[in-house]
Amino acid sequence: MTILYYLLLVLHIVACFFLIGVVLLQQGKNQDLASAFGGGGTQTAFGPRGSANVLSRATTILAGLFMVTSLSLTVLRPRESSVLDQLPASTAPASSSAPAASQPAAPASSTAPAEAAPAASSAPATSAPAPAASPTTN
For 68, phi and psi rounded to 5 degrees? Predict the structure, then answer.
């Protein structure tokens, strides 16, 4: 299947280059100076209809070949994983941790050890500090 893909890719690139060359070789319609200023108004919108020459037939055939190879390359492309598929699954978005941080922290009790409540130690203290004792005079 990959051999067919690469052969079709080479055919597509060759058709692209030939299509570019054939289009550039064609002579444009109404190239005189009067047509630049609207002097060719007596003709139809697309110019006089003449017999198709070799270049116009080649353009039609190469444009059809280009479209067919483009669609075929899309169907036959190898199914590789993208960069987003290669990210580790453990990477979580920051929005999933936001609800856990918005919960109020319980005040730390004096009997609980510091290691047992890491969330309470990282949260700001909710109780007011005790007032300082007044100095006694003797």
Answer: -65, -45
Tokens of 119: 């969330």
pLDDT in tens, 13-61: 999 999 999 999 887 765 555 555 665 555 555 555 556 788 889 999 9
Give every CB contact of residue 30 below 8 A, 6+ residues apart in sequence: 40, 43, 47
Domain region containing 72: 1-27+53-77
Rounded Cα distance, 47 and 3, in Å: 45
pTM, to two decimals: 0.46
Residue type, 42: T
- The answer to whether position 4 is within a domain reads yes
The closest alpha carbon to 123, from 101, 110, 109, 105, belongs to 105
Are the CB atoms for 103 and 85 separated by under 8 Å?
no
Tokens 């003449």 correspond to 50
C-alpha triplet 4, 10, 15: angle, nearest 5° = 120
In-domain check, residue 87: no
Number of structural domains in the chain: 1
Reduce the DSSP state of residue 131 to 3 states and report it: coil
